[in-house]
Amino acid sequence: MPSCERPIVFHLSAIFHPAWFPREACPEGNVNPHAQTSAATHLNNWFVCPQAKPEAETRLFLFPYAGGGPAVFRTWPAGLPDPIEVWVAHYPGRGSRHNEPPIKQITTLAERLSEAIHPFVDKPFAFFGHSLGGMVAFEIARHLSRNNLRGPEILFVSACEAPHIPDPYPPIHELPDPEFLHALQQLNGIPSELSNQPDVMQLLLPTLRADFEAMESYVYTPGGPPLDHPIVAFGGWSDPRVSRERLADWCLQTNSDFKSQYFPGDHFFINTAWEAIIASITAELTAAHAKN
Known about the structure:
By secondary structure, the chain is of the alpha/beta class. The protein has a single domain (12-286), classed as Alpha/Beta hydrolase fold, catalytic domain (Rossmann fold, 3-Layer(aba) Sandwich), CATH 3.40.50.1820. It is 31% helix and 12% strand. The protein has helices at 76-79, 106-117, 132-146, 177-186, 192-195, 198-216, 244-248, 269-272, 274-291, and strands spanning 47-48, 58-63, 84-89, 125-130, 155-158, 231-236, 258-263. The chain has a 7-stranded mixed β-sheet, with helices on both faces. Helix 2 (106-117) packs across helix 3. The chain is globular, with a radius of gyration of 18 Å.
């Protein structure tokens, strides 16, 4: 199976944004305050829980796009109903973890997150990942399946091409700085307030390059059956990077149900259509619970 060199669109404002979840809701800024009384017996810094809901029926694990941190999903907790508790993946190299080296391989990142997630799957859960985050969520689901561990009720992938399909876009992570930055501007990934701040951009470049390298060097490894849980794929009507055909090919990665849904917007429809996305996720999880 060929390497899947995948296009990545991101938003720089999320890289060094401080952990925006209130510390009184999440001690250390990254853990669930009721973790000691649930299945978890230790804390880790891989997930941020904005609002603990001990009585929640489902944990929704969210995985940001390239360049993104927990701030990507800052509007989501208030928009989701009480039965759903939000946990957001916090990759190294950004936010309160900006002093840690970023991880340059999706499989390595997924393995670390898989280890961190094990104590927190004592109740039904689901994954949502956008772009890079979709591939990370997929590889975590595969890891859980290979190890005969509980998997997500539903895998939601957003603005993310099916992993087994090669992509025609050339990699950019090894380009010299000027060309690399120009490529980022072409992807509409640099906010105007940062494009004229070269000192800030130099701080961001290592994390950006690492995220691009992770996605562009990703190689889908076949093996084992498709996943046993449903996959729901979200796309943007005007996304120039992820075609409907490539999104629809996610159907080959599951033995269960598959569906796709489209929202107004481009690759960043997650930022403009988040309320509709949340409503769809809630409806899908509610329907899944009704079947069980």
